[in-house]
Amino acid sequence: MELVARTPSEEDIALAAAIPKRRTDRRRFTSWPVPRGHLDLMVDRAAEAGALLIPVVGQLTRLRLTTAIDQAALRQQEDPEYQAEIAGWSGRGRLAEDGVMAGSAQPAGRVHGDTAMRTFSGGTLPDARTARDEPDGGQLLVVATLADNPTAILRAGEAASIALLTATGRGMATCPLSQPFEIADTRAIRDEVLDGAAHPHLILRTGWLPVSTPPPPRSPRRQLMDTVDHMPAAWPPRPR
Ligand SMILES: Cc1cc2nc3c(=O)[nH]c(=O)nc-3n(C[C@H](O)[C@H](O)[C@H](O)COP(=O)(O)O)c2cc1C
User: Fold this and answer.
1) What is the CATH classification number for the domain harbouring 132?
2) N- to C-terminal Cα separation, the chain
3) Which of 30, 103, 155, 200 is the most buried (most CB within 10 A)?
4) Ligand 1: distance of its center to the CA of 25 in Å?
5) What range defines the domain where residue 141 resides?
6) What is the per-residue pLDDT across 127-178, written as a single tens digit (0 to 9) for each?
């Protein structure tokens, strides 16, 4: 396989610049709505990456989606294996080399508006200060594909990454939500939220924190070479 390098576009450079700024932010958002233009840009870029990004509009559709999140969370809460797994990789200290740090997660059972957030062990991250009784303006989007095969799943991941970085570049906070996709039955989302038209893979939540809110701590990362390897055919590089 020949690997061809191309000159990065301005858009690529802007997305790359958002990488060190992006964090999963599980806090409550302000009520400021996400502008239509920002959503359109996320949708367009996800489409270029080969996946559908579907903003959840309409009260009933949103209710169906948030109900699916609630039901998945309930099932997981009753599952001792899930509980043991999440306890094993969250609640980590600042010197952790992987997993979710206590300082990046919130105390158990947080629900922002209608959206239940995943509970991690020992979460300590407080909400940023919003106005009293201010509703959470988090926008939910579903990453989906027409096909349901390994290539489609790869494209969905790339599209999710690009959508998250696009939102970060516009100053918005983001959080992926995947609990409904971790239980066996995801039909409720496919049929009731997407009208059976596409295969859902991930939910993204995005919105605004109050101006000047410091970001949550940076998550630990394993060493690059612990997670990726050279393709046998592409390494060692051929001399030119
Ligand atoms: C496919 C995928 C699913 C995720 N699902 C959730 C989720 O359900 N709830 C949550 O709070 N974070 C979720 N996350 C966020 C990860 O926990 C987070 O990316 C990881 O802890 C690293 O933190 P960072 O994004 O701030 O670098 C998900 C991330 C990915 C890539």
Assistant:
1) 3.40.109.10
2) 16
3) 200
4) 9
5) 23-210
6) 999 999 999 999 999 999 999 999 999 999 999 999 999 999 999 999 999 9
CA distance 122 to 105: 8
pLDDT in tens, 175-202: 999 999 999 777 889 999 999 999 999 9
Spatial distance between the Cα atoms of 33 and 16, rounded to a whole number of angstroms = 25
The Cα–Cα gap between 185 and 218 comes to 33
Both structure tokens of 12: 């690529």
Q: How many residues would you count in the chain?
A: 240
Residues with CB under 6 A from ligand 1: 23-24, 26, 100, 117-118, 175-179, 202, 219
CA of 80 to the centre of ligand 1 (A): 21
Torsion angle (degrees, nearest 10) of CA 197, 201, 207, 209: 170
In a domain, 132, yes or no: yes
Question: Which residue's alpha carbon is nearest to atom 7 within ligand 1?
Answer: 177
Using N-to-C axis directions, what is the helix angle for 10-18 and 150-169, rounded to 10°? 80
pTM of the predicted protein model: 0.94
Say if residue 135 is preceded by a cis peptide, omega within 30 of 0. no
